Amino acid sequence: MSRRHSFKSDANMSLTPMIDVMTTLLAVFMVTTPMMMTGIDIELPRAGVSAMTGNNHAIQISVDARGNYYLLNQKLSRDEVVKRAIAMRGENPDLTITLSGDTHADYGAVMSMMGKLKDVGFQRVGLRTQNDNK
Asked: Facing residues of 61 across strands?
């Protein structure tokens, strides 16, 4: 005797669980994405309406309030930053460097970096500032 089981399949798909999952994922990504943005906490100096805000194709070198140097968000010594910038210039001879110095950073630390970059042949070195919107 063989037993036959008749299975009725429900071909209708319920979208409610899928919408719940997608809404939850959207909320999780919206909350966690700003937390994943890493960067250096720098307060840029204000310099008028026509301030230099940076070039998306430039190398970003930063000096924080304690005088630490950063190249592309990686903390390095001043000489190491210069060595890596030279290596990057080998790939792109028209390389532009944007130097971001914290408002409370030692002026000497910022100018020391700028001077070292000029000494090794970088012609396009600019200081990044913030617009002074009052």
From this structure: 71, 99
In whole angstroms, give the CA distance from residue 18 to residue 24.
10
Counting every residue written for the chain, the total comes to 134
pLDDT in tens, 71-88: 888 899 999 999 998 888
Highest-confidence range of 37-46, 74-83, 100-109, by mean pLDDT?
74-83
Helix, strand, or coil (residue 113): helix
Question: Does some domain include residue 1?
Answer: no
Report the chain's C-alpha Rg in angstroms: 26
* Residue ranges making up the domain that contains 78: 59-128
- The whole-model pTM stands at 0.59
What CATH number did the domain enclosing 75 receive?
3.30.420.270
Return the sign of the alpha-carbon dihedral for residues 102, 108, 112, 114.
positive
Q: Is residue 74 part of a domain?
A: yes
